[in-house]
Design goal:
single chain; 211 residues; mainly beta; eight-stranded mixed β-sheet; 45% strand; globular; binds iron/sulfur cluster
């Protein structure tokens, strides 16, 4: 066990379920999304403190427990070894138990807060950059919202920069959607290029405006 990490217990109500993804950026023409599980946003007690926190679970765990907003759950998790690489507060989650089961909602408009689909659905749909303030104020409970762990290839094979970025996998004509400012992608000794949205068009080219 790494001594920087700690195993903690938590119990809380699910307030949002979003896909968990890693994004790799290299200059302007590469933005690769890998879908690695789900983030559960919880309100409750973690490591003896009342607060909101996020746990990372696998696709298999989501398939097994079918977590919904409103479920009350408990379990254990580990603190992060490298906080800059992972948005969730806790991962390597174990001992999961549903204490209270909420029914799946029937969402008829955005934010879409019914059960999240399989990761292959997110992969097929692709995503667009989503303004961080809109992610947090309007989209938090939407199954199409995502806060990704981003690695920027800053000096090829030598160093990377890390940050978190918000994305939307939802309908292109959603009334809440706002791209936000173009995103800087720096590279050593070359300044920054700006992702202004054309990668979004490529990532979501399979879908029409209302899909
Ligand atoms: S903008 Fe995207 S994430 Fe936000 S509510 Fe609409 S579909 Fe959901």
């Amino acid at each position: 066990m790494n001594t920087k990490q700690k195993k903690i217990s938590y119990e809380g109500e699910i307030i949002a379920v979003q896909p968990r993804s890693n994004v790799w950026r290299y200059r302007l023409d590469n933005r690769t999304h890998s879908h690695i599980g789900y983030n559960l946003f919880l309100k409750g007690n973690a490591d003896g403190e009342e607060r909101e926190f996020v746990i990372a679970i696998s696709e298999k765990q989501q398939e097994k427990y079918k977590f919904h907003i409103g479920d009350v759950i408990k379990g254990t998790g580990w603190t992060k070894l490298y906080p800059q690489l992972e948005y969730a507060d806790y991962y390597r989650v174990g001992g999961l138990k549903k204490i209270l089961s909420a029914p799946n909602r029937e969402a008829t408009s955005a934010p879409w807060n019914d059960e999240v689909p399989a990761l292959s659905v997110y992969e097929w749909r692709g995503c667009r950059m989503l303004d961080k303030r809109v992610w947090s104020s309007k989209c938090k409970t939407c199954k199409w919202a995502c806060m990704a762990n981003v690695a920027i290839e800053y000096d090829w094979g030598i160093s990377q920069k890390f940050r978190f970025e918000s994305f939307c996998y939802g309908q292109k004509n959603c009334k809440y959607y706002k791209m936000g400012k173009p995103r800087a992608v720096p590279y050593k000794n070359c300044g920054s290029s700006y992702d202004e949205g054309w990668l979004d068009e490529i990532c979501t080219e399979r879908r029409g405006l209302d899909e």
